[in-house]
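Quick question, first post here. What does this chain look like in 3D?
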Amino acid sequence: MRTFILTIVITLMAGQVTFGQTKKLDSISEENTKTNKIIVYGSDTCHYCIDTKAYLKEKNIEFTYYDVDINLLKQREMLLKLKNAGISDESLSFWQIFNMNVGFLGIQFSFGLQQTAVNPIFSFLGAHHEDLPLLNLAGPVTGLIVQPIIGAISDKTWSPRWGRRKPFFLIGAIIGSLCLFAFPFSPALWFAVGLLWILDVGNNMAMEPYRAFVGDKLPTKQLSFGYQMQSLFVGAGIVLANASIFLFQDWFGVAETAEATSGIPKWLYYSFFIGAILSVSTILWSVLKTPEIPPSDQELKNIKKHNALSLKDRIKTPFLEIVDAIKVMPKFMWKLAAVYLFQWYALFVYWQFIAPMFKESMGFNSSEALSQAAKMNTTYNLSTIVFALALVPLALKFGGKKVYVFSLFLTGIAMISIPYIQDPLLVILPMILFGIGWAAMMGIPYSMVSKIVPQERRGVYMGILNMMIVIPMGIQTVTFGPVVKNLLNNSAVNAILFGGIFFIIAGVLALRLKEPKTDDSDENIVITDNDGQ
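> Answer (accepted):
Ran it through. Tokens below.
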């Protein structure tokens, strides 16, 4: 529970409410020795609360104590009293926001392996250039189906013991962990492709409710910081994944080139084993460290009403929720969808063709190309870690839209320059710009969308936002194979240049976005019209 909430003492004296943070406890006995009732809302893990109880006992003041970490009903009661008294209880500390985002480290380690290692594994097992887009169809399809459905279901879920979002991203992490452990043992291409489908189901099941979970916990004024902290862990997870690849290749792959093996290099196994461990352990950290906020009485009524439906109606409800949410979706999200079409198409091109490009542009063998691609991805994600939180004050000063647009242009410039640099060290430098763009992409749009969607439908709208990501990826997997074969001369270099141009187009389209307006006094969102553009 939030530290500052745990330190609050609510005193009810003759029907009046007084808060321990705004009135010294010494005044309790001095001003009114005939106290009707004192209620302390706290936690046994909070030393301020323990000190408060000790002080009241020392002064022989009778009180009733409720541990709000255990008694969720009293937790809601406390929050309601705080709200009625005009006392803000919303700001979270740095470490609370840090802890709630730790799970992204494991999820993104898995994603980093998908970015860098899965397509080379497909190549090790016999796939050709033109096959790679279609072999990656698992990500878009599972993201399109799993995330919005899980988001809608989690909106209608509540367990006093397990919470609302936590069960979904914990189960997803376990599925992902099992797939990562099995992946390097793939005996054939079809087996690896099948595992990728199951892995993507697990990762998508974990990802969407996790993003909604962060939005649930944070007040409007901390959304930018919260989602940029998320970007930091996104970068850190992918950095660790890629660093493990090129380090293990350097340490254990000297005598084992791709041409000398009949399948997946043994040194690559270790990265997947680390990912399997992190996938579960980091999610568990966030689950155990961050309690969920219980739904309001009205939300509980809606959840009970939903649970009272027949099984058939409960199955239909998530799909109906998605359709209904799309019908009333803010114009801002429709405009963002156009940006995402080019942005995520380009990103999928980069992840699929960066390793093959080095075989073409620098003459590397498969293992060397994979190692170089891992260094590139490590660099841009290190840049993401450095710049993720630095973008928060820039977004506050210049606006999230301007920072986002500028970052997309930087990413396009970086991608276009890569094929023209022949030095293995110098070619890493553009990835600093790429990392700034990735930091903005993984934080700013989520922050802007979270401000304009209703709290009770945040899960389904985060799922719809992910649909805007996976639909362009799906289009890319179906269309880019013929494009690269027939229009780009089956050249990985031309594919990377193509992706860079698409990033520039995305930046131009992002100029059309209109940011949600905020009230400077309290940073609550004020929608200027019913469309929330």
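Residues 212 and 459 are 5 Å apart (CA to CA).
The first strand starts at residue 9 and ends at 13.
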